[in-house]
Amino acid sequence: DIQMTQSPSTLSASVGDRVTITCRASQSLSTWLAWYQQKPGKAPKLLIYKASSLESGVPSRFSGSGSGTEFTLTISSLQPDDFATYSCQQYNSYPYTFGQGTKLEIK
Amino acid sequence: QVQLVQSGAEVKKPGASVMVSCKASGYTFTSYYMHWVRQAPGQGLEWMGVINPTSGSATYAQKFQGRVTMTRDTSTSTVYLELSSLRSEDTAVFYCARPTGGNHYDYWGQGSLVTVSS
User: Fold this and answer.
1) pLDDT of A43-88, one tens digit each?
2) Chains A–B, number of C-beta pairs less than 8 Å apart
3) Which residues of A touch B59 (CB under 8 A)?
């Protein structure tokens, strides 16, 4: 199975900050990686697919980059609605696997 | 619009089985595979498997082999997840999730909480 390691597990930041979350895969994914945002009690929401493609309707302050085994999700200027948990997912091969999540908290 | 509506919360005793349903609407049911993902309280997301709604064939995560069955009913556009021999560690929210162009999940059900407790 492909292991996905996200860092950090928790991130404290302020409105307006630029933040970056990293996801590392135990083997190459090419660009078969997605990022999701999840709020308490809700289903995940797709933000980024194929490592860097922005899902329709997602604000442009979200961006993704990377290929192979290292990927990043960047939020260019945090907004109040962005405080949530973010997870990466590889869909290069079964079983699909997720990172353990990064909780983005208000500083 | 695409909608995935799941069945309600369940409480089960250890050793029992549970069936969760996911009714799809707003698209041609047989055009897209359906995946199941679970999330234990305070934990990350965990992929359980995928079903081809046309053929009914399914692929399961090794972790759940022998305990999980995914089925579908094309007449009602519904997919089902059955998990047997439940233990307390199976307490989780179960989601159905549908990919579109790739295998990233554009659409999710609202989640079904299954609590396993004696």
Assistant:
1) 999 999 999 999 999 999 999 999 999 999 999 999 999 999 999 9
2) 56
3) 94
Phi, psi at residue A81, to the nearest 5°? -75, -10
CA distance A23 to B55: 35
- What is the secondary structure of A35-58 as a DSSP string? EEEE-TTS--EEEEETTTEEPTTS
A96–B102: do the CB atoms touch at under 8 Å? no
In terms of CA atoms, which chain B residue is nearest residue A86? B44
What is the 3-class SS of chain A, one letter each residue? CCCEEEECCEEEECCCCCEEEEEEECCCCCCCEEEEEECCCCCCEEEEECCCEECCCCCCCEEEEEECCEEEEEECCCCHHHCCEEEEEECCCCCCEECCCEEEEEC
AA letter at A100: Q
Closest CA to B61 of B52, B74, B70: B70
Percentage of chain B surpassing pLDDT 70?
Answer: 100
**A96 secondary structure, DSSP code:** P
**Contacting residues of A for B97, CB less than 8 Å apart:** 43
Specify whether the CB–CB gap between A71 and A23 falls below 8 A.
yes
